[in-house]
Amino acid sequence: MKRVCVVLLCLLMIAGLCGCGQAPPANTPFDLNPHETNAYAEVLTAYRDEVWSDPYASESLRYSFYDIDGNGTKELLIGWYDEYNDTRLTNIYIIQNGVAVLQEMFYIVGEGGGLFPSKVFDNGVIRVDGSDDNGRGISFYRIEDGELKHQACLVCNINVFDWEEQVFNDEYFHSLKDEGEIPITKDEFDRLQKEYEGDGQVVELDWRPLR
Description:
By secondary structure, the protein is α+β, with helices and mostly antiparallel strands. It has one domain. 16% of the residues lie in helices and 41% in strands. The strands form three sheets. Strands 7, 8, 9, 10, 11, 12 and 13 form a seven-stranded antiparallel sheet that branches. Strands 5-4-3-2-14 form a five-stranded antiparallel sheet. A two-stranded antiparallel sheet has the order 1-6. The longest helix has 15 residues, at 37-51. The chain is globular. The N and C termini lie far apart (41 Å). The model is unreliable at 1-25 (pLDDT under 50).
């Protein structure tokens, strides 16, 4: 089964968790510096006010600051910490004209699928992995002109039955945003993955609980 890139808006993940009839905790600075002041504080306060009354959500929701594109201003990263001690990057905010703007993220995943912990590289590349019963997909992003831009998707559909050969094979595809999937070989899949990732090293993000 072929899959397409879809919009991931994980802000909906925490909707409806806010308690009623109680006041949220007082505002905190969230370790902001002068370049990130009010714009990010408003976003983080909104997240915290949604989940503060739910112990699991308030512990699992994480945030981090990192200058992905190296322009001197850090982006705000929102993640979800799970029982495997991994944090999945779900949302990225970029300051545009003084306002923190949620960026669209795309991933490849089918029915029953999920996201793996994302990788942010020190060369500005962001990699998001998804999987389902049929295989896995990798999406790549960069920040260009102050916006998060989707670069490409690589897809591996597993256990595809070849009727002529009577064997199961993997199928590999390469797709760009708004374009169809182009069949490729396993070697091409590996080559393109290295090409999109470049020579960057994975960044160890400083994920912090949103409490």
